[in-house]
């Protein structure tokens, strides 16, 4: 070698001398090795000792000082040790120099004032000036260094790293000024709490508004990229400004950032809104890749979040996996490490539940740990004979302050032809999964929680012939997803109210997540070789996320899609994020000794319609955490209006003979106009996942006066455009026409009843005296639950169209009937006397807004399904929407409609006979398909009812 850095066969000590002579950090040379023949040794001049000491402090000892700052200590012992190490030479020099200076001071003591003090350097004396300047710089640096380190560590206690803070983000928008569209820029600075408006992106700030001056954001329904901002000016006037964003995703990102800013700078101690991430992934018995952060960032296909919201951290992460090969500790470590990469926030494991390879993990921010309580976990096996755990569900629930949450991760039976078996899995999970408060045993898990999320590999397939496989793949490439979703088994089952009754699902805009070729997302592998032959697995949306919330509760799905870069499994991970409203532990503003009239909840009128053949008496059972006593007049624990508007009543219609439930529902106490005390309600009744009727009536809510606090989720509103108002007007006109036609039908039925001689009893026939007497006699029919019953668990309503998005509070799917002005009973009366005739003519009269009675299907838990499953016909290209399935054979039993309402006859004074029986009979089903064999003759006692119906 002839390089200048090669020094041949020199000793190690000689190499050290040469490097010391160079005196520069990083200097190196190469010499021949002394121990290995033919090898070389690289000699490098290492860093100075002070750099090693600083490196050691940053790597090892800074964490100790960080913990001291978090615990409130003002001392930094490890930093002081580092300063003493770095200033060792300075200390020795000062110790050596100070006696010489003191001797000099003593010599010239008469000429100088007592004490050694600093003196301004003389002009023209550069040596003295330079020395004094360095001493001043040294003194200032040593005195300020500790304070700077302490400040950095204190900021780190709140935010672990500086890059986890949300940086200022600029949006380019358009604004109309005198009919001319002009560009402007909106800068959102979350950390300082300011919204800045400026013309140029890099130009100076023209105007800014603090978070308290931003009153409301109003989204336009007609224009999805239009947003109106209500601002408060200096003169306390409200200014409305309209902006046009580049697209809908940019508008949503802007709204989320402003909500984050309002939440960060809010004066409220407890949050009233949470951001929840839910994810499901069938891992296919394969370990995950090293990087899965795209899953938690909601990056991929479908409804994804804007990149401006990447810095916004979710409060709770719920991760459900199936066919998971890892143990619990390995998987939790991967999740925490992935979240630390993208958020750098501290998350705590709330709970974990595993059934074989089915697992659910819940993580929450460390700051929310003390707000979470009543954690409960459970699992249900639905494998072979319901004894194997390869299929089934795991669940977890908890209370966040005053709001209950439930999460279910399920893996249902696979196979396109096993739709009925999946339905049985669903009912088994719904019935046997035990979560939430045990005092709510009359209600299944779909009614026990304020917000319930159901995710997992549900294994519902696209129901098309195998010959359509290539056509399906072609339509996926063309992104014609909606045409294929018409054949999705889950959508078809939900449309027929077979499974997931009243659950919601965001609109699907991403491709099928199963079955991919492992290692890529470019090809679907829809054939599998088995011993019995080739099995087809058509591309399908197997992995889903659904939810159900109590009525009038705020919940918005902000994203729903799948990833593209995680390819270790034949399934793609699916993500869904939600913005949900929560309630805090309410403290009444009124003193217990106030003389104000306490609040109460009074049922002015109620009526239940049940699909049953039972001739029994019924009673209503109420459950709610806000109730103190349970009578006809319900007394809440707290009378504040702000508290009561966030509460719900769970109702259960039970048989007085067996105390078995015939239907459960939920009533929201939130009114459109809080100033009005009376409001009508209408809620469907369900039991074990089947719709069994509906419950309607009127409630009078008496509460103490007080100002209602504005919720954070009310900061963003949906603007009611003219088109929406026109639709509502048309809907009201149709409802009025339907009411008039129903009255004419009712009058005809009255005439028929008078001809047949049967009594006719309707709620409108009651007088005010009958109302009061009946209410007094029926007060014993309400069963009281313990006063310490926890908060009610509410259920959201089913949407009219599966897959349509839900914005804001859940709406009741069925239009409630018009409220009658005639007084009626306060409580539900008995159903039917045992000696009554079999046909009830008054029950054949439908109320003005009563929905059509669906044909009931037997629950597979209680007996065999008698109707053959209908396979849609093979479709030729292009695909056509599936035709509704028809029954080829009738069910074993046909349920009738039973109306339970008030009766005009006053009850007898005997207390033992407080429950009054309303006469009536059971409806005969209409439009029953004809059979191959002739029917048996109709009994003579039923002939009259049949003739009345034909008349």
From TrEMBL:
UniProt-listed Enzyme Commission number(s): 3.1.3.86
Protein's membrane topology: Peripheral membrane protein
Signal peptide: none
Compositional bias (Polar residues): 821-847, 886-899
Domain SH2: 5-55
Top-level EC class: hydrolase
Compartment annotation: Cytoplasm, Cytoskeleton; Membrane
GO biological process: immune system process; negative regulation of bone resorption; negative regulation of neutrophil differentiation; negative regulation of signal transduction; phosphatidylinositol dephosphorylation; positive regulation of B cell differentiation; regulation of immune response
Region (Disordered): 779-951
SUPFAM superfamilies: DNase I-like, SH2 domain
Record-level Gene Ontology MF annotations: phosphatidylinositol-3,4,5-trisphosphate 5-phosphatase activity
Keyword Membrane: yes
This protein's UniProt keywords: Cytoplasm, Cytoskeleton, Hydrolase, Immunity, Membrane, Phosphoprotein, SH2 domain
GO terms under cellular component: cytoskeleton; cytosol; membrane
UniProt record similarity statement: Belongs to the inositol 1,4,5-trisphosphate 5-phosphatase family.
Name of the molecule in the record: phosphatidylinositol-3,4,5-trisphosphate 5-phosphatase
Native source organism of the sequence: Engystomops pustulosus
């Amino acid at each position: 070698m002839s390089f200048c850095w090669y020094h041949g066969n020199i000793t190690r000590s000689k190499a050290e001398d040469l490097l010391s002579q160079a005196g520069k950090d990083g200097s190196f040379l190469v010499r021949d090795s002394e121990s290995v023949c033919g090898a070389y040794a690289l000699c490098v001049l290492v860093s100075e000792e002070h750099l090693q000491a600083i490196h050691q402090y940053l790597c090892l000892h800074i964490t100790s000082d960080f913990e001291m700052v978090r615990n409130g200590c003002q001392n930094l012992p490890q930093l002081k040790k580092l300063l003493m190490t770095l200033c060792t030479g300075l200390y020795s020099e000062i110790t050596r120099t100070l006696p010489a200076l003191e001797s000099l001071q003593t010599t010239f003591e008469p000429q100088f004032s007592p004490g050694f003090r600093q003196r301004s350097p003389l002009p023209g004396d550069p040596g003295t000036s330079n020395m004094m300047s360095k001493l001043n710089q040294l003194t200032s640096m040593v005195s300020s260094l500790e304070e700077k380190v302490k400040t950095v560590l204190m900021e780190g206690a709140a935010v672990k790293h500086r890059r986890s803070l949300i940086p200022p983000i600029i949006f380019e928008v358009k604004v109309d000024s005198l009919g001319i569209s002009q560009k402007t820029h909106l800068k959102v600075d979350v950390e300082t709490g300011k919204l800045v408006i400026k013309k140029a992106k890099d130009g100076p700030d023209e105007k800014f508004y603090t978070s308290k001056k931003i009153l409301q954001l109003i989204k336009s329904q007609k224009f999805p990229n239009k947003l109106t901002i209500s601002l408060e000016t200096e003169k306390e006037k409200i200014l409305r400004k309209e902006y046009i964003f580049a697209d809908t995703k940019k508008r949503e990102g802007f709204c989320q950032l402003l909500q984050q800013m309002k939440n960060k700078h809010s004066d409220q101690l407890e949050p009233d809104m949470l951001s929840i991430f839910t994810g499901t992934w069938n891992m296919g018995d394969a370990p995950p890749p090293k990087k899965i952060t795209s899953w938690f960032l909601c990056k991929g296909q479908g409804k994804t979040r804007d990149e401006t919201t990447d810095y916004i951290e979710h409060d709770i992460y719920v991760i459900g996996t199936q066919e998971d090969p890892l143990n619990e500790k390995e998987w939790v470590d991967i999740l925490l490490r992935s979240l630390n990469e993208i958020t750098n926030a501290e998350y705590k494991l709330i709970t974990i539940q595993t059934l074989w390879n089915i697992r659910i993990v819940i993580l929450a921010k460390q700051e929310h740990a003390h707000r979470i309580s009543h954690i409960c976990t459970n699992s249900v096996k639905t494998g072979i004979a319901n004894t194997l755990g390869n299929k089934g569900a795991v669940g977890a629930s908890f209370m966040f302050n005053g709001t209950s949450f439930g999460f279910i991760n399920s893996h249902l039976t696979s196979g396109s032809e096993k739709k009925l078996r999946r339905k049985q899995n669903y009912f088994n999970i719904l019935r046997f999964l035990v979560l939430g408060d045990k005092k709510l045993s009359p209600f299944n898990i779909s009614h026990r929680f304020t917000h319930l999320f159901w995710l997992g590999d549900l294994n519902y397939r696209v129901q098309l012939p195998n010959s359509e496989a290539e056509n399906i793949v072609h339509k996926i490439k063309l992104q014609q997803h909606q045409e294929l979703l018409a054949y999705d088994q889950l959508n078809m089952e939900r449309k027929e109210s077979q499974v997931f009754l009243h659950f919601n699902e965001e609109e699907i805009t991403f491709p099928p997540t199963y079955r991919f070729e492992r290692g890529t997302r470019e090809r679907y592998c829809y054939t599998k070789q088995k011993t019995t032959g080739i099995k087809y697995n058509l591309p399908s949306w197997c992995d889903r996320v659904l939810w159900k919330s109590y009525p009038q509760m705020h919940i918005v799905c902000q994203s729903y899609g799948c990833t593209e870069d995680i390819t270790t499994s034949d399934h793609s991970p699916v993500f869904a994020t939600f913005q949900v409203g929560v309630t805090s532990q309410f403290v009444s503003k009124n003193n217990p000794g106030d003389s104000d009239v306490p609040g109460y909840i009074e049922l002015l009128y109620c009526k239940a319609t049940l699909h049953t053949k039972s001739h029994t008496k019924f009673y209503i059972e109420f459950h709610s955490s806000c109730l103190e006593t349970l009578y006809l007049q319900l007394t809440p624990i707290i009378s504040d209006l702000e508290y009561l508007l966030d509460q719900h009543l769970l109702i259960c219609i039970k048989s007085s003979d067996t105390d078995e439930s015939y239907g459960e529902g939920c009533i929201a106490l939130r009114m459109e106009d809080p100033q009005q005390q009376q409001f009508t309600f209408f809620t469907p009744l369900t039991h074990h996942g089947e719709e069994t009727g509906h419950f309607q009536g009127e409630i009078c809510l008496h509460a103490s006066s007080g100002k209602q606090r504005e919720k954070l989720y009310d900061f963003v509103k949906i603007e009611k455009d003219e088109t929406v108002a026109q639709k509502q007007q048309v809907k009201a006109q149709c409802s009025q026409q339907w009411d008039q036609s129903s009255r004419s039908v009712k009058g005809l039925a009255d005439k028929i009843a008078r001809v047949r001689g049967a009594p006719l009893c309707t709620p409108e026939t009651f007088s005010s005296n009958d109302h009061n007497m009946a209410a007094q006699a029926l007060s014993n029919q309400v069963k009281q639950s313990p006063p310490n019953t926890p908060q009610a668990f509410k259920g959201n309503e089913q949407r009219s169209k599966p897959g349509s998005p839900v914005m804001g509070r859940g709406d009741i799917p069925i239009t409630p009937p018009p409220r009658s002005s005639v007084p009626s009973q306060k409580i539900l009366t008995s159903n039917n006397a045992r000696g009554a005739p079999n046909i009830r003519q008054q029950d054949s009269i439908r109320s003005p807004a009563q929905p059509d009675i669906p044909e009931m299907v037997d629950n597979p838990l209680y007996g065999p399904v008698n109707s053959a499953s209908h396979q849609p016909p093979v479709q030729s290209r292009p695909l056509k929407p599936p035709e509704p399935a028809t029954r080829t054979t009738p069910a074993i039993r046909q349920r009738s409609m039973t109306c339970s309402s008030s009766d005009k006859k006053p009850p007898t004074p005997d207390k033992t006979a407080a429950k009054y029986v309303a006469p009536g009979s059971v409806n005969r089903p209409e439009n029953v398909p004809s059979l191959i064999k002739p029917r048996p003759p109709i009994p003579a006692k039923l002939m009259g009812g049949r003739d009345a119906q034909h008349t």
